[in-house]
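Contributing new records

If you add data, match the layout below exactly. Sequence lines come first and carry their own label; structure lines follow with theirs. Keep one chain per record. Anything else will be rejected by the validation script.
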Amino acid sequence: MRIVGLGPGDRSAVPAAALEVLAREVEIAVGEIAADVAELIEGPRLVALGDPDGLAPDVVIAACDPEAWTLARRFPDAQVIPGRDALRERAIGAQVARLVRVGGRLRRDCPWDREQTVASIVPYTIEEAFEVADAVDSGDPAKQLDEVGDLLFQSVFLSQLFEEDGLGDLGTVATGQADKLISRHPHVYGEVAAADAAHVLDMWEASKRAERSDQGIFHDLPPGLPALAFATKAQKRAAAVGFAWADIDGAIAALVEEVGELGAEPSPDELGDVLFAAVAVARQLGSDPEVALRATAQRFRRRVERAAAAAAAAGERFEDLAAADQLRWYESVGRSAN
């Protein structure tokens, strides 16, 4: 089986190399291609692709890049033209370009989208980022893909607004991100060796610090970040200059000390110290405190719901019980609510 990519779907973008390959064939199974694209394939007889599972093993298939890549993944032993890596990149590019066109059309023709600005869109971007985190926690693949798609469109639409302001387009954003990632991964794109993941993070922070040496230790620390994210980022910046606990034992000892001080003198300040020390422990564990706390809160919610259900099955209304009785039901369902 051979699978030939015909480009994104436009007649003007069909690769000459693909037409040369196809011209030597007698019969070709074609996917969903435009009539003017089919006209370019001279010589062979064209037949509808139909059900891919019923194809002969020596069939030659011609399809636009996104469909061709879907087939290439379905048939891993097929010969792919222009090659699997190249076809994958072209297919993704075509699909992202379609999303860009949708964003442009909405900006022109949708009354709501026409009114938006960067400032008005950012709250939605933040909301979508949290929904991605929730989808990952859910373990539902369909939900994860859907929410990542929503977040991707936020980047596409914001880039559209930047383009209108003359600041650059999605291509500018993508190029800048790729260049930055390459420069901050010398252990991948250069000759530097990285011993482990922790060393990679150290190099990342050192690279950022060198790029922003005129901005001080706490560069790029937006005051509007949620508190846990602000604390995590602040500690990362301090650690980049060596100001951090050397190991988890030191971080835990500091947390225990802060809990003791909170017990001795309960106050918002002491509570803040406990939370800040807990962030340091999370960093030593390689865990994001936001993700860890969110997971714990979800487990708590599920366990309380199980406790309420167990009480209801026994003829009791959880909301009407005394705190001690609620706790009894909570403990009775155990940690299996995870």
